[in-house]
Structure formats: C-alpha cells, structure tokens
Amino acid sequence: MHASQRQALILQLLGERGFVSFRDLEVQISGSQATIRRDLERLAQQGKLVRLRGGITAIAQDMEAGPSPATLPPLAGVPFHENVSRNRQQKEAIGKAAANLCSPGEGVMIDGGSTTLQMCPHLAGLNLQVLTNSLHIVAALIGQQGTRILVPSGAVFPEQNIILSVFGDDGMPRFHAPKLFMGAASVGPQGLMQADVVLVAGERRFIERADTIIIMVDSTKFDGPSGNVVCALDEVDTIITDAGLSDATAQMLERAGVNLIVAG
C-alpha cells in the first residue's frame, strides 16, 4: 500500500471514530509499525491529527485555526443540567463507591460529569490533590478543608461547564495520578464512547497521566448509542455501575478483563 493510500485510510478511520488506537491501525493498515508511525508523524506535522499515548485523535475542522472562545461550537451530547437528575440514586451510590477507592493524601484526576460529581461529598477529610476539568466539581470541593484543586487551561464549554483545550496545546498541569475517574456517554464491546470529539481529546490527555482508569456509569449507559471511541475496554481497569447491569453485559466486561464493582 502506497504512503498516500495509508494516510488516506488513517484519516478515513479518524473521521469515522474520532479516536483510533495503534493496535487498530496495525490491523487495518498494511505496513510495519515503523511505517505507520512515520505516516502518523507526517500527518501530525500537517495538522491533520493529534498523536496520543496509545493512539491518535482527530482535530475538529472548525478548530484547526485556533478559534476564539466566543466562536466555539457547542459540545454534542446531553447538557449537564438535563443529565444531572437522571438516575440520581444510582449515580450517588456509584459516587460513594468510587470515593472508597481513594487513599488519604493521594493525587487523583476526576473528569467532568454528572456521575463523577457524586464522588465529591465523600472526599472530605482525605486531603486529596484533585485535577479536574469540571467547574461543578471545583465548586463542590472548594469548601473542603485539606482538598487541593488543580484545573487545566483552556476554554469553558457551558453545556457541561467543563474546561477543554482546543488551541493545539496540552493545557494540563505537570500532574500524574494513580487513579483517573471518568464517566461516559456509552460503553460497549468497542470501548468507552463520548458524543463529541473534543471531549475525546480532553479525556485522552487525562488517560495519558493516569496509572489506573476507573469508569463510573449507571447501567443505562450500556444500552446507549454509539459515539466517538475514547479508549478500548482493555485500557480500562475498573467499571463502577449499578445493579441494573445485565448478565450478558457483565460477562462481556469480564471477558475484557475489566474489574466490575456493582454499587448500591
């Protein structure tokens, strides 16, 4: 396969998925690892994709020129104010179970979301360092004595009240954590998914800085629509959900090697 054909296929896969792992590229593209990496480097230099640990992500076309915050398009997906009251009891139980995984004094990352927000009341007294992109989580933690909060640089997206970098830079503090807590729009055999490619890029930056990836989703998210893949299931260490999870889904997660915690 000629270089131009390989690169066209790479961009086609990105257009379909938003994120593509190196493993998938090796399966889909005829070429050695070194050849594929040269193609990715060339496309990254041309500003057509972003290389991340474990894969590549797309650059939204209307953000390539470095937009001002006032011209940013809204994020795809359900707005936070609509999502926060859905399955509230299950989310509260999931949040408590997630907080029980935190050790006093450690650093953690908490991605913005209506389920991850429910961790916050249970973190008081643990003296954590928390890196989060969510202004809701900042507001929930800021009154806790001993909790230190860090936020990335970037633009505020009011639909989710989160901070995301869209200007081609990393936007993250020099921070590494043993645990990353994330939500999802949906979860399936293909992995963790979000509705918007900008969210995918932001969450991949968190993933690069974490030793352990912990996903917090209520059981309805396993029947959700497809979307842009954030990561494959084999990158996920633990999923915390509720008792509404079907036996078939539990078996699928077990086959993928995911540690399953059922809360509530």
Automatic annotation (TrEMBL):
Positions of the HTH deoR-type domain: 3-58
Name of protein: DeoR/GlpR family DNA-binding transcription regulator
GO molecular function: DNA binding
UniProt KW Signal keyword: no
SMART domains for this protein: DeoRC, HTH_DEOR
Species: Sphingobium cyanobacteriorum
Annotated keywords: DNA-binding, Transcription, Transcription regulation
